[in-house]
């Protein structure tokens, strides 16, 4: 949290290569801080922090509008085309402590593609990495972002119909994180009104968690 008329939320994004992880960070910030492009190899090789300008018309407290400030930590994908798991884990752990060690982390966003089925082996690697970094309460501080939602819409699937036909692996994951998920079309630039809707959903997840933050420490 920031001052009495301000609120800061700290987010980190995780995901496999080409899920749209960095694009999600850009959408939330309303910027192009993170490199995001189609590539046959992993694009992100180091962690970087993006900060939004203060965003209005998102949250109110005691009848007064608060200025929302969003900080997003982008991370290398895992599995990675050039980095080992140990390299990714230590890079992310160091960045988490450096950027959010004092204020804490509000949410980790696990980015998955809505236009591809989630198979058991595919999700295990990234989830294991999140567990190792965030610890035993990781489920309380993790939400799922399903990107490329426009592909599901083009196939005539509403969010309800999509989830009705989703794999048991995805449904089990959503259940484990207490149904904290959002659909996002990040193939095109997100407009301000859509960003406000997405941020309100994330704030609702944070509110459901009683505004707790995950405090991060260097591993002994």
UniProtKB/TrEMBL annotation:
Molecular function (Gene Ontology), one example: GTP binding
Keyword hit for Nucleotide-binding: yes
Gene name linked to the record: Gimd1
Q: Please report the stretch or stretches of sequence annotated as the AIG1-type G domain.
A: 6-220
Q: What is this protein called?
A: GTPase IMAP family member GIMD1
**What family is it from?**
Belongs to the TRAFAC class TrmE-Era-EngA-EngB-Septin-like GTPase superfamily. AIG1/Toc34/Toc159-like paraseptin GTPase family. IAN subfamily.
Question: Keywords assigned by UniProt?
Answer: GTP-binding, Nucleotide-binding
**Tagged with keyword Thylakoid:** no
List, alphabetically, the InterPro entries matched: G_AIG1, GIMA/IAN/Toc, P-loop_NTPase
Record Pfam families: AIG1
Organism, by scientific name, is: Brachypteracias leptosomus (short-legged ground-roller)
């Amino acid at each position: 949290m920031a001052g009495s008329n301000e609120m800061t939320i700290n987010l980190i994004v995780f995901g496999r290569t080409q899920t749209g992880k960095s694009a999600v960070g850009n959408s939330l910030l309303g910027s192009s801080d993170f490199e995001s492009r189609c590539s046959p190899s992993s694009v992100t090789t180091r962690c970087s922090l993006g900060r939004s300008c203060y965003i209005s018309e998102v949250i109110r407290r005691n009848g007064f509008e608060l200025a929302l400030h969003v900080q997003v930590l982008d991370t290398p994908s895992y599995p990675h085309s050039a980095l080992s798991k140990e390299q990714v884990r230590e890079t992310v752990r160091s960045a988490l402590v450096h950027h959010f060690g004092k204020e804490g982390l509000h949410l980790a966003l696990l980015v998955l593609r809505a236009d591809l089925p989630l198979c058991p082996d595919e999700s295990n690697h990234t989830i294991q990495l999140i567990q190792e970094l965030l610890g035993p309460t990781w489920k309380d501080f993790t939400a799922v972002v399903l990107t490329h939602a426009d592909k599901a819409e083009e196939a005539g699937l509403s969010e309800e119909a999509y989830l009705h036909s989703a794999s048991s692996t995805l449904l089990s994951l959503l259940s484990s994180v207490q149904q904290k998920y959002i659909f996002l079309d990040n193939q095109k630039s997100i407009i301000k009104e859509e960003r406000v809707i997405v941020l309100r959903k994330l704030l609702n997840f944070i509110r459901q968690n009683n505004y707790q933050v995950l405090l991060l420490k260097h591993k002994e």
